[in-house]
Amino acid sequence: MKKLSSKRYLLWAGILVILIVLPLLFNTAFSHHIMTMMCIWALLGMGWNFIGGYAGQISNGHAIYYAFGAYANAMLLQWFNLSPWIAMWVGCLLSAGIAFLIGKGLLRFRGHVFAIATMAVAECVRLIFINTKAVGGATGVYIFSAKLNPILYMQFSSTRTYVYLYMAIVVCVLLFVRWLNKTKFCYYLRAINGNETAAESAGINAANYKLLAYMLSAVIVSLAGSLYMQFMLYTDPSMILTSNISMMIVLVTVMGGVGTVYGPIIGAIVLTYISEYTRVYLSHYNGLDMVIYGVLVILIVLFIPDGLISIPGRIKRRRERRHTAGKEAPAK
Amino acid sequence: MSVFLQGLYEGIINGSILALIAMGIALVWGVMNILSFSQGEFLMLGMFVSYYANRLLGLDPIVAMPLSALVLFVLGIIIYKLIIARALRGPILSQRLITFALSMVLVYSAQLFFGAEYKTLSNPVKFSGTIDLGFLTIAKQKLVPFLLALIVAGLLFWFLRYTRMGKAIQATSMDRYAAGLVGINPDRAYTISFALASAVAGAAGCALTYYYYLYPNVGATFQLWGFIAVAMGGFGSITGAFLSGLLMGIADTLTGLYVNTAIKYIGVCVVFLVTVSFRPKGIFGK
Which residues from chain A sit within 8 angstroms of residue B112, using beta carbons? Predict the structure, then answer.
């Protein structure tokens, strides 16, 4: 790895300071809620990015793993009194196993059919959760208990603790993604995305790598689900297992920038900000918040199809073009 | 036996609505390669047109049907011109997300303007009653979706096969640039097919109001089953979408009847996944 130049070093230090200061500066429960949700959506986006962004297989059913992560925490606590610190890794393993089975079956489909198949499976899982009494059925599960040790059972009384913890987890996952981004694994996935047949003829086992990417994305999404559960302390299938959630996971990534390292984080920040603020200020007009949200999403996706992360590059390119045009002008 | 026949009949009726939705999705998919998430919402809007025509003008849904189809045709043109035409320049993924966001806008606009509560037709429907065949009881109003599905399928087939515009649409779906070279306006062909798809959903919505309640989010379920029907029927094949829509309705009702209503949708999904595993391009795909 090349050494960080002092300028980049300063940039990272600055971001770190901002991350530490922000929850102190905006010290209300609502802003902490927004920051926590941003972290969770950033994880969801980064997870989905592996299969949808790098490998180019657009899954529209990732809410399954979100739910498995959340329910793993809740049920292991209820059944075995297991601490979430352990349960979330059990949830990740479970999700990886489920993703292996589903991926084996579905990953041979391409394009729209893969998307529809993942949606169908997600719908089946939703119906199973709703009709299973053991996991709370349609009423869901509630895990708050004042008797539990807050640190051991990740039920903090201060929302700021959640923000710092989740930010730390996002930074860890981000470092992991940054590292992975430069490995062979991600280059193989990009090759498969570019042209699967060509990638296979170059000796890449496309089926295996797609399955691996699918499992990896399921694990990260499941982690996000566990964190969501610990923050909300309540969940039910209509909260986290709808096709809307699956689509929003895609949306976060696409808005930020598909197949980029920082795109999902930027998408999560912008999207959460829009959705939370429209909800708070407009929701008393029965649905107006979602209309505004939808319109904003349409506008952003329509006019910035490569994601928000492409904006600096665009501006730079435009300025260069203007610059060269300006040089040529006197010659006329 | 009588129970089975009754179940089969109800299944065909439910399947007709799915078939109508699926035909619209197949048209948009086949012609411009977009997985349209807003098709179910056009159905919902058709239901609202029918509901208000009934409440304010006292019209029977079957009379309101042309009106609903017309309203949605115009809405389809507007949406295409405003949003879809621009989205087509972007990547496939953002096209899909734009139709998803559009469906969200439509659902919540309906909630904003018409309210979120469940509604049924308030004025009495003239076209009602039952025909008792002894082994089968046919509710007259439930015949409407089935007949409509048959008529619309026939009309769409005729339109695409024998009219100039229809042939232009088919040519555009095969190769947009080649169609442009021989003097077809691809943009116009796209507009017409998008608007037609939404008009079909609007008519289906009218038929559905006879026996189904309406609320802003009613389209979501039909939407997913429509997708499945199209994927099962085969890539953009309208006939395939029609037939597999009927098939799914039957599978759905019969599993509900004989196995368990809670898992009837799972039955449909399993049928779909098994079918696509053996025939990845769908039953009628080439």
Answer: 285-288, 291
* C-beta separation of A163 from A32 below 8 A: yes
- Radius of gyration over every alpha carbon of chain A, rounded to an integer in angstroms: 21
For residue A296, how many other CB atoms are within 10 A of its CB?
18
Residue among B217, B159, B187 nearest B80 (CA): B187
Task: Please answer yes or no on whether A123 and B104 come within 8 Å at the CB atom.
Answer: no
A234-250 mean pLDDT: 91
Residue A116 amino acid letter = I
What is the domain partition of chain B in residue ranges?
2-217
| Helix/strand/coil for A1 | coil
A127: chain B residues, CB-CB within 8 Å: 262-263, 265-266
Count of C-beta atoms within a 10 Å radius of residue A24: 9
- Distance of alpha carbon A194 from alpha carbon A30, whole angstroms: 42
Band (pLDDT 50/70/90 cuts) for residue B110 is very high
Q: Can you tell me which residue has the tokens 């107006």? A: A288
Chain B contact for A286 (CB, 8 A cutoff): yes
Crossing angle of helices B39-57 and B61-79, in 10° steps, is 140
Kindly tell me the sign of the dihedral angle through the C-alpha atoms of B248, B195, B87, B170: positive
For residue B104, the distance in angstroms to the closest alpha carbon of chain A comes to: 6
Q: Which residues contact A89 (CB under 8 A, 6 or more apart)?
A: none
Element (H, E) at B132: strand B130-132
Name the minimum distance, in Å, from the CA of B203 to any CA of chain A: 25
Each residue of A294-320: pLDDT tens digit? 999 999 999 988 888 888 888 888 888
| Chain B CA closest to residue A249 | B97
Put simply, whether A101 touches B (Cβ < 8 Å) is: no
Distance from CA of A176 to the nearest CA of B (A): 26
Q: Is the pLDDT of residue A137 over 60?
A: yes
* From B83, B115, B269, residue closest to A120, measured CB to CB: B269
| Exposure of A99 in the CB half-sphere (CA atoms within 13 A) | 33
Contacts of B272 in chain A (CB under 8 A): 117, 120
Give residue-wise pLDDT tens across range B245-256.
Answer: 998 888 888 888
Q: Is B135 a residue whose pLDDT tops 80?
A: no
Whether the Cβ atoms of residue B235 and residue B35 lie closer than 8 Å to each other: no
CB B233, CB B284: distance < 8 Å: yes
B108, closest residue in chain A (CA to CA): A287
| Interchain pair B108, A288: CB under 8 A | yes
- Encoded tokens for B206: 């009218």
A58 in contact with B, Cβ within 8 Å = yes
The size of chain B, in residues, is: 286
* Chain segment A66-85, per-residue pLDDT in tens: 999 999 999 999 999 899 99
Taking the CA atoms of A173, A174, A177 and A178 in sequence, report the sign of the dihedral they define.
Answer: negative
Q: Which residues are CB-neighbours of B60 under 8 A, at least 6 positions away?
A: B54, B125, B126, B127
